[in-house]
Amino acid sequence: MKRIFILMLVLCSTSTVLLAQQTKLTYPEPEFTKEVYGYKTNNNKLVRLEKETSEIKSKVKMGGLGGAQSGYEIEGSKSPVRFQGIDNLTFVFMMGYAKNEEDANKKNIQGSMEVDTTNMMGENNMGEGMGNMGDIMDMLNDPAKTISLYQTSIKNGNRKIVLQESQGGMMAFSKKEKSNSKYSLSFKKIKGTYYEIVVDKRLPKGEYAFINMGQNNVNNSAVLFAFAID
After folding, report:
1. Residue closest to 91 by CA, chosen among 156, 40, 136
2. Would you state the pLDDT for residue 227?
3. What are the distances in angstroms from CA 184 to CA 62, 195, 198, 224?
4. Closest CA to 35 of 94, 123, 97
5. Domain ranges, ordered by start, for the chain
6. Which helix (H) or strand (E) holds 158?
7. 90 Cβ contact list (under 8 Å, min separation 6)
8. Distance CA 127, CA 111 (A)
9. Percentage helix, strand, coil, to 5, in the chain?
10. Is the confidence at residue 176, as pLDDT, over 90?
11. Model pLDDT for residues 69-105, shown as the tens digit of each residue
């Protein structure tokens, strides 16, 4: 009887461990780095979002008397990437630095800081600057500082994101266009430079786009990753 009890206890423990392993969330590796992916947790699949590089556009109303606005545009009124609700949807992003690349970057920054610190403060003060090397690399690789999520509006057949708008002296005589809704995000580190992006608020139906200001930021351009919630 005692042996049967012990055997049942072992079987129960084994089942519990196997169940925990099966239910543990394992993140698939994205095919491309530096891209925001949709991640369906119910089937553990990544979905590549619509990708477009857009240059920021500024518009002055009534010669400046009616104010001005600036933002990005995405061609087309609807994204081909569409999700049915968001109950099983989250997002992921990988910076793309391999371990050897991170080490090389750290060495390059470290060498530059050694030279600058030696020239400016003397050799005795180098140690204090070197202690912050990990913090500097984390700051450079932190997507929370470069990635934002906006709901887009439709105008002239394209999706538009109004980032800033200033009012002029004769604003009462011009049609005001509101800035697009920006959603707060939380970033959960999966491993290395691989992050899960969690939208803090439920997304209603509509067209959306992530803006990555840290990628291809030339001539005030940014990389956008668009999708829609139906």
Report:
1. 40
2. 98
3. 33, 16, 9, 17
4. 94
5. 30-95+142-229, 98-140
6. strand 158-166
7. 38, 39, 41, 196, 197, 198, 199
8. 13
9. 30, 35, 35
10. no
11. 889 999 999 999 999 988 889 999 998 754 444 454 4
Within 10 angstroms of residue 177's Cβ, the number of other Cβ atoms is: 16
With 0-12 / 13-18 / 19 or more C-beta atoms within 10 angstroms meaning exposed / middle / buried, residue 179 is middle
What token pair was written down for 157? 């057949």
Distances (CA, A) of 119 to 25, 112, 126, 197: 50, 11, 10, 41
Q: Are 180 and 71 in contact (CB under 8 A)?
A: yes
pLDDT mean across residues, the chain: 75
Give the CA dihedral 59, 63, 64, 66, nearest 10 degrees: -90
Q: Which residue has the tokens 């005692």?
A: 2
Note the pLDDT tens digit of each residue in 47-73.
999 999 999 888 776 555 556 788 999
Tokens 């997304």 identify what position? 203
Is 106 exposed, middle or buried, given 0-12, 13-18 or 19+ CB atoms closer than 10 A? middle
Q: Are 68 and 61 in contact (CB under 8 A)?
A: yes
